[in-house]
# Entry
Amino acid sequence: MALRFIGIIPNSPDTDSPTIWLDDETGDLLIQSYKATEEEVQACKEIGSVPGHSSDVPDHETIIRLPKVMLQFIPRPDSE
# Structure
């Protein structure tokens, strides 16, 4: 795996640091951020996504809250 550091939340303390890395081989993002609260997870389940698709969160997945300031680090295709 060839990871590349993309960004960290500006002015974050040493112990509270949402971070984004890019896997250069797959183009996938690895994101460290805040866990969504139970209330937030429940709200996501209630809203759902694609009709007919389960709104349960499988054990191998999680919902995170990514601070708005971190959006600047998400890579965009050159055309955007």
Q: What stands out?
A: The chain has one helix and five strands.
